[in-house]
Amino acid sequence: MKAKKQYDIIVAGSGMGGMTAAALLANRGLKVLVLEAAHALGGCSSSYYRKGYWFESGATTLIGFDKNHPLRYLEDQTGISIPKKEIRPSMQVRQDNKVVTQFKDMDTWIEEISRVYGQREQQKRFWTLAYDLSEVVWKVSLRNHFFPPVNWKDLVPLITQNNPKDLWILPYALRSVDDVMKDYHLDRPDFRRFVNEQLMITAQSSAKETPFLFGAAALTYTNYSNYYVPGGLINMIHEIRDFILKKGGEVKTKCAVEQINRTAKGYHVHTAESSCQAPVVLSNIPVWNMPYITSGEIKDYFTDESEEYQQAWGAFTMGVVTNDNYPKNLPLHHQLHFRDSEAPKEIDSNSIFVSFSHSKDQQRAEKGKRVLNISMHTQPDFWFIDDQKEYEKRKREVSKYIVRKLDQLLPGFHSGDIIEQFSATPYTWQNWVYRKKGRVGGIPQSMARSLTDWMPAETPFPGLFLCGDTVFPGQGIPGVALSGINASKRITRYLEQS
């Protein structure tokens, strides 16, 4: 065992939340160490290389650079410039014989959604409300770094830093997306399917279970600037890594955190090969993993918290390389809808999400070829079985089903053009990004959970902080980046007061 080394902050996990916080803290002159279990940085906000091509690890869409958005804040505070190109339109949805193109411009979007589903005036009122609410949510979220409050000190900025004019949004924390749809008589079954599937890829839940306060931002994310990172999202993570290193921090891969032990002066963090110490630890590790790397009352705390959130989604994903025989102006992101009865029992999804590499991105695939990242929701427990033959059979069946649906629904896709193909289940994800049971996407939205019933960035244990998609505000790259911003603010206050 190597000798312990002293740092100001140790960050466990290099997902976007941890990297955001590490960059902000390093920028303040603090000595930061980031430890990542995998061989590549970024967790679910990254890319991986396989058979000559670059695939995205998890997230494939990228927003958060508009006014009052977390990634804009990160760039403004640090001077980091994440390599990116805006894409328009953001996405297309294919439902039965309908094609819905999701435009950034709100007026154009309202015309498009009305063209497909009718009820123009109701659609206009619904989407205008959703966007207006989303604007306030982003603004208020970026202002309130100490939400949810954990003590009386957190209440002071909540009272003094907020505008009473923004309080109109609060009742929508108690009303579901479904409730608001009913207000506007938007009750067409096909439109309801559209909304439910949009929420599943953003809020991990349905219109009935998603509070409109969160659902508004989830539904309107395509009305903000959407970006593509040439070469893959790992280049975004590497840009942040380079900034941390420039500021004197350290970033280590293949260094899984095996134990976090509390001491009189802070924490000892143990990996297989070394031990280091710091007064502060920031965990970017999902809440479900925390009981396995802590002990005593800390372990008890995380055991209780993780048991409260056992219902979470896994993903069945595919990486596919094909010849580039697609229509010239085909958007990069697609959601393909289908009926319940069509899906195999191995999944619990009514849609497939497909993202393409850019046709001119020859870092990810040579000219004339395209990389496709494909994902569907699935129940994690279904894939954790002892029968290896049955497991492989299930993988093959779902893979065949997905390819068949792509043949049917995705313009320009022909299975005969496939050059490379592989699939991953929640079991794969557990071994790949070390998330317990392969749960990805965070904790699903629920009307039963109040605004304050979210895991905050600050734990009851002095010096131990959290970020990531199982911490407020939840899933998505902007969401986890915001959790990292909030954690950095709490850590800074803690160190100043220690």
Automatic annotation (TrEMBL):
<keyword id="KW-0472">Membrane</keyword>
<protein>
    <submittedName>
        <fullName>NAD(P)-binding protein</fullName>
    </submittedName>
</protein>
<dbReference type="InterPro" id="IPR002937">
    <property type="entry name" value="Amino_oxidase"/>
</dbReference>
<keyword id="KW-0812">Transmembrane</keyword>
<feature type="domain" description="Amine oxidase">
    <location>
        <begin position="16"/>
        <end position="491"/>
    </location>
</feature>
<dbReference type="GO" id="GO:0016116">
    <property type="term" value="P:carotenoid metabolic process"/>
</dbReference>
<dbReference type="InterPro" id="IPR045892">
    <property type="entry name" value="CrtISO-like"/>
</dbReference>
<dbReference type="InterPro" id="IPR036188">
    <property type="entry name" value="FAD/NAD-bd_sf"/>
</dbReference>
<keyword id="KW-1133">Transmembrane helix</keyword>
<dbReference type="GO" id="GO:0016491">
    <property type="term" value="F:oxidoreductase activity"/>
</dbReference>
<dbReference type="Pfam" id="PF01593">
    <property type="entry name" value="Amino_oxidase"/>
</dbReference>
<feature type="transmembrane region" description="Helical">
    <location>
        <begin position="7"/>
        <end position="26"/>
    </location>
</feature>
